[in-house]
Amino acid sequence: ICWSVGGGWHRPRVQPYGPISLDPAAAVLHYGQEIFEGIKAYRHADGSIHTFRPDQNGLRLQRSARRLALPELPVSYFVQSLRELIAVDGAWTPSGADQSLYLRPFMFAKEAFLGVRPAHKVAYYLIASPAGAYFRGGVKPVSIWLSEDYARAGRGGTGAAKTGGNYAASLLPQAEAFAHECDQVVFLDQDRNVEELGGMNVVFVYKDGTLVTPESPSILEGITRDSILQLARDRGHTVEGRAVSLAEWREGVASGDIVEVFACGTAAVVTPIGMLKGADFVDEQPTGELALSLREELTDIQYGRREDTHGWLMRLDD
Ligand code: PMP
Questions:
Q1: What residues does CATH 3.30.470.10 cover in the chain?
Q2: How far is the CA of 12 from the centre of ligand 1 (A)?
Q3: SS3 190
């Protein structure tokens, strides 16, 4: 779908997958004016294809659009794009445990204009790719590198938007994590409060059963996190969103107040954190049953193995 000043959203169409032609002066190539989403389609045992809380992705795309001075795509157009892709390419949705069709909606400034201002011409696309199980051989706890030298986002910046620049900023710290034999990197904000991993939110489980997740204006509000926390509330857990300092994390683990730490996001769903490593320390993290049991409940809903009492699923192939 295209958008232009004066023309609004127009030219919705389905076209064969292939290269996009862009003017070398297209604003996105110079100023990074672009946003995206990540969402999955799941094949149920009866063959039907469903997606999970697409309205939430559509609304988040709108919030990202506002921050990046891009036009807001109506949520109904967003959902329609998912349905149309499934109508032509739904057969690519794999079946089987933890298999899905990963859907990647994205929007970028395509106007050829070298001045720095919001582009007058924008394009929205949706592509897809079959995705296998994120973890081969079962869910394993991941090790996390604490990034002290680099920030993912600053106060007032674009941290809460799903925009490429945030991911560009995380590539070097992620490489640093690999160099320290860690799987993922965790970012702190300027007050040394925990933000998130490069592509997942963090949740702490306390001894009294309370789940605490960092809240801050520079964190991407994950839909997996929101759903997992809702399932925990359904089970009677107290859930808190608040600032969590690095000191609270490390002391909580050392004293036994924090009994589980896990990360969550669309790609990996839920993954226990097994180790936190910094320049001068290595903290083993406690792992427990709650993260894996919430993961199982959520994936059961997504794959149609358990009743969807929250009305989170939307059938795409009818
Ligand atoms: N934080 C970041 C930076 C992410 O890229 C993602 C993945 N979209 C998440 C958190 C988790 O969000 P969600 O659960 O909606 O996938």
A1: 2-133
A2: 27
A3: coil
Residue with the smallest CA separation from ligand 1 atom 7 is 199
Measured between alpha carbons, how far is 144 from 185 in angstroms, rounded to an integer?
Answer: 5
The ipTM value here is 0.99
Q: From CA 43, how far away is CA 98, in angstroms rounded?
A: 10
Closest ligand 1 atom, residue 152 Cα? 3
Q: Average per-residue pLDDT in the chain?
A: 96
Assigned CATH for 2-133: 3.30.470.10
Contact 38 CB / ligand 1 (< 6 Å): yes
**pLDDT (mean) for 11-17:** 95
Give the count of beta carbons closer than 10 Å to the beta carbon of residue 113. 18
Query: Ligand 1: distance of its center to the CA of 270 in Å?
Result: 11
Please name the fold of domain 142-302.
Answer: D-amino Acid Aminotransferase; Chain A, domain 2 (3.20.10)
pTM: 0.97
Any atom of ligand 1 within 6 Å of the Cβ of 214: no
